[in-house]
Amino acid sequence: MANVTVIGAQWGDEGKGKIVDWLASRADAVVRFQGGHNAGHTLVVGDVTYKLSLLPSGIVTGTLSIIGNGVVLDPWALKAEVEKLTAQGVTINPENFAIADNCPLILPLHRDLDGLREAAAGAGKIGTTGRGIGPAYEDKVGRRAIRVCDLAHLDSLDPQIDRLCAHHNALRAGFGEDPVNREQLLADLREIAPYVLQFAQPVWKRLKKVRKAGAKILFEGAQGVLLDVDHGTYPFVTSSNTVSGTAASGSGLGPSSTGFVLGIVKAYTTRVGSGPFPTELNDETGQKLGERGHEFGTVTGRKRRCGWFDAVLVRQSCAISGVTGIALTKLDVLDGFETVKICTGYRLDGKIMDYFPSHAQEQARVEPIYEEMEGWRETTAGARSWADLPAQAIKYIQRVQELIETPVALVSTSPEREDTILVRDPFMD
Ligand code: IMP
After folding, report:
1. Each residue of 212-235: pLDDT tens digit?
2. Which of 70, 118, 365, 380 is such that its CA lies 20 to 30 A from the CA of 417?
3. What residues have CB less than 8 Å from 168, skipping those under 6 apart?
4. Where along the chain is IMP bound (predicted)?
């Protein structure tokens, strides 16, 4: 198992950035396989903080970084992120960075539609990141997307642009919006094309070569399993499959390549955007978790909703995604609580449930059943071995592990790369 696939096992924001960065320093290639620039991965290396939305985290360590076909790519966001990182001293060139040439593009018309829909939905809005992710994936499966490889053939793009504009103009008219400025769109694509094309290639081929050479590949998931378009809290989800299996289809490597599946799990629960959240705390405790955990979205700056750890949800995510082991993050946020609670089941219409139902209304109505544990007074921040942890914190970790039926592989105790307790090395498994 030379490869590792990292996925979020909750609603995203589990602290994947740090873990991916830590693993990336030991990988030979890092691949993003779904999502787009809706992700927010924060990496802290020494005194420098890097905030990535689209680029694979390996880019910071100079590791070969690849954007797979499963991603939706906003070319202008790409350029801005590359420029921002370059200004921070990161080297990005066609040697260490590649984009799948069959990757669909996010265009300004997708962002427009995302915004129009959310504004029209009122209280029923999804709370998207407003980046055009959903509309871009719709055009992909609707078979009218403009893809990276099309940028090399702009002179023959007219029929595709016409089809795309016809679709979007009908939708825009429904919102009372002006039609797409077709000429402006083509001019913008013409201008950005050479920039994107310098990185474009059939990445499946490059990855095949990398794999044949015995290199270690790290697949970097974005968002979390509970935002998966099939398995998440539908319709309050993102528009891609965030589960581990997507690493194969979203990169052009087969299912046998995904290796050790590392599920990133926060020691409590957070969510941004709308949708069900059984253990949400709209009280002082929730406020305290948010403040101590600095729970504000990396991409949108929105305040995250906070609640106790939900073992039912994480057990389900681990099963659905075939998680081999978890990385438990932000344990220190629970330091100093007199007692801590874990959700071990739900009550719905008088019945006890050991899983999260599929129906949105049932998801919204389940009541958490809690188990309460004694907390710990000492700090866990910066711990690098079990011996550095208070006994109660170890008990909490053990109970989590038991309830989610998945072993702990890593415990992360601060945003710093080295503040990690390694139980089981995913690359050596
Ligand atoms: P979209 O991905 O922008 O369409 O947003 C759909 C839902 O996914 C919203 O609830 C967003 O807040 C959520 N979401 C998207 N990306 C992330 C992420 O990286 N972390 C956490 N939530 C996300």
Report:
1. 999 999 999 999 999 999 999 999
2. 70
3. 109, 113, 180
4. 13-16, 38-41, 129, 143, 223, 238, 302
